[in-house]
Amino acid sequence: MSRQYQHELHRATQKLLRVGAITKALGFVARERLGITQEAIAERVAAIEEERAAGGGRPTGLRCPECQRISPARHAQCLYCGLEFERRLY
Length: 90
Ligand SMILES: [Zn+2]
Known about the structure:
Blueprint: H1 3-34, H2 38-53, E1 61-63, E2 70-72
Antiparallel strand pairs: 1-2
Bound molecules: zinc ion.
């Protein structure tokens, strides 16, 4: 793994941990102050994931036509196989 990708992976991991902490905090606040249950949140998460899977969600990356994996949209090439993107694929 190249140094650039290691750096990218580290940044993505840090962002993921931050999002996880924010999500957990929001869950506590929702339950304690608003009485919103874990089940209600889980239902909404499932609905969002279904919408995204159906193609209705905002794309967050580019799907590589070679390896089918998704790289962040700001990259000019696939993070996994190195294929150079010529244009936005979706
Ligand atoms: Zn690829």
